[in-house]
Amino acid sequence: MILKILLVAFVILFIARVLFAKKLKEMGKAADRTLNLFLIAIAIYLGLQMLVVYGMS
Question: Among 17, 31, 43, 45, which is disulfide-ready with 27 (CB 3.0 to 4.6 Å)?
């Protein structure tokens, strides 16, 4: 269940990052860096989860 929630959050944040790139620049580097770090953390978790799930099969 948490994997599905994280996957949806990743997709939503990625789309928001693309659509609101100009607005994030106006908000400053802190907001941009926070969003980037969150996206990276979710991507790493999803990658590790994929390795665990498909590595066991």
Answer: 31
